[in-house]
# Entry
Amino acid sequence: MSPLWAVLFVGLLHFDGYDCLRFHSYFGDGMVLQRDSAVEVWGYDDLTNDVQASLACVGKDGRKSYELVDVESMDGGLWSMTLPSRPSGLRCDIEVSGGGEVITLSTVVYGDVWLCSGQSNMEQNMGNIMNSTEEIEMSAKYYQIRYMVVANTASADVDDDMDITVQVPWSEPSSPNLRSMSAVCFLFARNIQNMMQSEGDEMVPMGMVDSDWGGTPVEAWMSQDALDACGVPQTECNEEYPQNCNSRLWNAMINPLKKNSVKGFLWYQGEANGGYNRDLYNCTFPTMIDLWRREFSTWSQAPFGFVQLASWRPDTLDAGFPVIRWHQTADRGYVPNDIMDNVFMASPLDTYDPKEGYPGGIHPRYKQIVAERLAVAGMNVAYHYSTPYAPFGPIPFTTEFEKEMMEMVITYDVPITYTNTEISGFYACKGTEEDCDAGNSVATWIEIEKEGVKVLDDQTLTINLESFRGEPVLSLAYIWRETPVQEYLGLPIYGGAPFNLPSPPWKKTIYQ
# Structure
């Protein structure tokens, strides 16, 4: 059955009611169940008294196990069973039977499940990245990665028992379906497995669930209670574009998945909020993270990784994207922090893509480097691998302003390389950070000339601000542009080998 017909078939089941024994559409042959955790498997139909369920598994050592599992009948024509916790690597068959009907899930494996979501840069698939043909061919050998794609669906109603529509069923990397899978989501898993292997550890099977929709704001992915906590205004929904309405995608594409145990979450979104509720994003995004962690059948501090907004328009001075990037870190400039614990990120500001059309422009095709950086940070936060380098890119460890000399001394937490081929990387503004981001004629971010930045040692820079002497208020920022550089991997500051991670953007009011 082709993926398209599979989608149409599942869709018909959704609308025809639940008149036969079946699994919730999330479950499928070849899927990944979360290791080391009790897992709920559920579906539809009024069960008969003779219902039975079993779990038959084969371990990596060839040892077989078989056990019966209790099935509970629930109101509304639903049933549920809880599978016992199992380690990574088991291959299992699950069977549920009753009333003359038998349904099965075959070749299920235990590993780590990640839910990937956001808008179009997460939705951008493996068929639309740099060297896509080669990347897809190379990926076929990663047979321990499985993936599925949730179809774009919006709902005005929230229902914990709602089914989903499946665009791509659970598949292996050798399947033609890989072209339709989120590139950042899949390549994150590929990089995690590469890094585990390079450490001499056994690779963990990865189950990557892709549930995203291009052009959508963060508000669509949050419950109404979460929106209320941030004071998001109630707006009338334009039913022509329901995906942009408050909670509609939470209702249809996230909440119906929350009974499933997951390892963590990956997120790439924010472009749609650059000009919409921008100044609420420092509340809405952390609150959304808390919501997802709380509602899913997982531990309360499940790892959450995100990608900062990439470059787009090379000549604009609009501060929408820079401010969203700042708000993505709860206005700290880095993660994890005191508000966003167990959160990790990747910075893609050096992946400007000049190609016209899609992909290109706001959708850079350089998804490989983004996924690698996200995996480097994820190995530290989610998998607790210690590293000799900063897994999040160099961060200013101390900043000291010498007012008499009008110099800012910046010391980074790790050794850096500094190159000013395209820009110095630093901007000053005669005003507070907030005034500068407003972009009025009085307070604007002005680029520091290249000769104004000096390297003192492998961790310390000085910024000459003599031209701003006498200003009552002064602020400083790093790569505070929607597109700070156009050269691929051409930012001024990077950490060291092997990953050469870029320093993320930051800003600071020096004095007022």
